[in-house]
Amino acid sequence: MARSIRYDVYGGPEVLRLVEGPDPVAGPGQLRVRVTAAGLNPADWKAFGGLFARGPAPDGSRGVGHDVSGVVDQVGAGVDRFAVGDTVCAQVPEGALADVLVVDVTDAVLPVPEGVDPVVAGTLQVASRAAVAGLAAVGVGPGDVLLLSAAAGGVGLIAAQLAVDLGVQVVGVAGEANHPLLRDLGVVPVTHGDGLVDRVRAAAPGPVTAVLDLHGPEYVTAGIELGVPVERIASIAAPPDRLQGAVSTGGAHATSQDVAHVLDLVAAGRVRVPIAGRYSLELDAVREAYARLRDGHVQGKLVVTPAA
Predict the structure, then answer these.
(1) Measuring CA to CA, how many Å separate 291 from each of 17, 45, 297, 306?
(2) Angle CA 256–257–263, to nearest 5
(3) For residue 296, what pLDDT is reported?
(4) Beta 247-248 vs 233-235: how paired, if at all?
């Protein structure tokens, strides 16, 4: 029997349930994937927490999670891009936290290149799309100095490394425990909190020319105080009424080709994705993982590995 994590009411991690049922079957245009890893994202707990809700309760039982990697063990009719035994990663509408799942063969299903840990591949799609979209929104390149908030999180670490790879000088905001990692990645770390603007001015190698906010609207305000034009300030986290003219962006503005590029950079050793914690597909473990993610300050990614 296949296990999956689901919810049918909104709330905290306590509303999650472990459900068992028969293995799904791949239909036309689909693959069945035995899950190696499912990466956790803030959008997951926001979904089962009702932050995206259009009503008082979900429309039926819903699956959890969007990032997944695994091995193809069944191929539906009409599929010729993949074969049984292929290792793939995908972004799915819901239900990544499962032993096995069926995915539609869209361009969001990608082969995992040789040299990429499948566990890491299972964490990359959502964060890579957000990172690429954010950097594109502010148009950074050689000579730019980028202020990046939440620089040690799942999106932030990828965005920081992609920016450094482009020749950008990055000033990354993170807690002091994360500063050694950021320095190792070529990022100038600064601590969040009161006095941020003064600390950024003191630490930055030159005037800040762009801001990518991954945390909240206070970093839009900081960018404006630093003299950055609002068209070069982008946020994936600030609500529309607090953008102050800055650009709102997110993963929907990136493509699967962007994710494939990040996978290639991981394979080449030019992007690293730290795994901050691995959890089994057991209810208590999954609830613990989402409580940790919701509390914040995770360095890198959390992942559920069903076979563990």
Answers:
(1) 15, 9, 12, 18
(2) 90
(3) 87
(4) parallel
Closest C-alpha to 248, from 134, 118, 167, 107: 134
Question: Mean per-residue pLDDT for 252-257?
Answer: 96
pLDDT at 251: 96
What is the per-residue pLDDT for 297?
85
CA 96 to chain centre: 14
Q: What are the percentages of helix, strand and coil residues in the chain, rounded to 5?
A: 30, 25, 45
Q: 130-179 pLDDT, tens per residue?
A: 999 999 999 999 999 999 999 999 999 999 999 999 999 999 999 999 99
Tokens of 171: 């000033």
Are the C-beta atoms of 72 and 13 separated by less than 8 Å?
Answer: no
Four-point Cα dihedral 307, 94, 234, 193, nearest 10 = -60
* Rg from Cα positions in the chain: 20
User: How confident is the model at residue 57, as a pLDDT?
Assistant: 74
Contact between residue 70 and residue 87 where contact means Cβ atoms under 8 Å apart: yes
Cβ-based neighbour number of residue 167 at 10 Å: 11
The two structure tokens encoding residue 112 = 């995992």
Place of tokens 């091995």: 71
Q: Which domains does the chain have, with CATH numbers?
A: 2-123+273-304 (3.90.180.10), 127-253 (3.40.50.720)
Helix then strand count (H, E) for the chain reads 9, 16
